[in-house]
Amino acid sequence: MTAGRLCVLVLLGLLASTSQAALFEDEEARRAILDLRQRLENLRQNQQQASEQTLQKAIEQSQKQFDNLRKQVESDVGQFKQESILTKQDGRQAALQLQSQIEALKQDIANLRGEREQLLREINLLQRAQKDTNVDIEERFQKLYERFAKQDAPSVKEEAPKVNKLNVQVDGFEFLADPEEKRDFEAAFVLFRKGDFSGASTAFGKFINLYSASGYKPSALYWLGSAKFARRDFNEAIAQLRTLVNDFPNHARTPEAMLTMGNAQIELKQTKEARKTFNDLLKLHPTTEAAAAAKDRLAQLK
């Protein structure tokens, strides 16, 4: 075998060996790639399955939370509705109680106003009566002084002193009265002015019985009725004042007597009778201060 041919054979052997080695390496690489792909596919499937399970658990947990939240909301809404109903009922009850208290306060205020008006009127009457009484008292002391002076002077004959009637003026009326008559009326009036209404009631009652035909009688009836009213003896006050109104309709004290009668009837819850008394006062004596006060009282009775 020639050297050239030997070289060719050796070269071909090397090429064959190299080709076999290359073929072996390609097959191993292909298997490795397939194995890697299989692993990747398994990993992907495992991850997908795990993700789906995790997602499912999250969905289930969210659904549970949603259901719990929905139940809590429904419970809160029901409780809120119940509380709203109770709150409305409590509000109505409180409003009714408040309205009742307001009406009671209004009635108390009206009563207090009426009492205040009555007191102011009585104070005015007392002031006017005091002025008249001061003049009468001065005259009385003058007469008493003259009387004692005559008793102290020597007399030739023992004669009973002759009592002259006095010319007096009370409440716009002028008449004659005995000194004792004048004294007893003034003494009763002093008791009234001091606020001793019990003593004044007794004194004026005795005066009317003792001096039934006296010119003081209309005024005595008025002050007797006022004293009874001050002592809250309303029935007796109405009886005395009605006698004055019926027997002396034109007397200066008659309008005031009718006003006091109406107030006494209100105190006795005789609303119908009080309204009639006030209306009669407005009809018979419309221009008097008592009529103006009666008009206010009528407005309060409505």
Could you characterize the architecture of this molecule?
- It is a single chain.
- This protein has helices at residues 3-152, 179-193, 197-210, 217-230, 234-247, 254-267, 271-284, 289-301; strands at residues 166-170, 173-177.
- The chain has a domain at 115-150 and 167-301: Tetratricopeptide repeat domain (Serine Threonine Protein Phosphatase 5, Tetratricopeptide repeat).
- It has 302 residues and is mainly alpha-helical.
- The model is unreliable at 6-12, 14-19, 21-25 and 152-161 (pLDDT under 50).
- The protein is rod-shaped, with a radius of gyration of 60 Å.
- It starts with a helix and ends with a helix.
- A two-stranded antiparallel ribbon has the order 1-2.
- The chain contains 8 helices and 2 strands, in the order αββααααααα.
- Helices cover 82% and strands 3% of the residues.
List the helices and strands and how they pair.
Blueprint (H helix, E strand, L loop, with lengths): L2 H150 L13 E5 L2 E5 L1 H15 L3 H14 L6 H14 L3 H14 L6 H14 L3 H14 L4 H13 L1
Antiparallel strand pairs: 1-2
Question: What's this, in brief?
Answer:
The chain has a two-stranded antiparallel ribbon.
Q: Describe the biggest sheet?
A: 2 strands, antiparallel
Could you say which structural class the secondary elements and strand pairing correspond to?
A: mainly alpha
Poorly predicted regions are 6-12, 14-19, 21-25, 152-161
How large is the share of residues in beta strands?
under 5%
CATH T-level fold name of the domain at 115-150 and 167-301 = Serine Threonine Protein Phosphatase 5, Tetratricopeptide repeat
Mean pLDDT: 77
Lateral arrangement of strands in the main beta sheet: 1-2
Rg is 60 Å
Number of E-state strands:
2
From the 3D coordinates, which CATH architecture of the domain at 115-150 and 167-301 would you assign?
Alpha Horseshoe
Q: SSE order, as H and E?
A: HEEHHHHHHH
Cα shape: rod-shaped
- What would CATH call the class of the domain at 115-150 and 167-301? Mainly Alpha
Total DSSP helices: 8
CATH homologous superfamily of the domain at 115-150 and 167-301, by name?
Tetratricopeptide repeat domain
Percent of residues in helices = over 70%
Query: What is the distance, rounded to the nearest whole angstrom, between the alpha carbons of the first and last residues?
Result: 158 Å
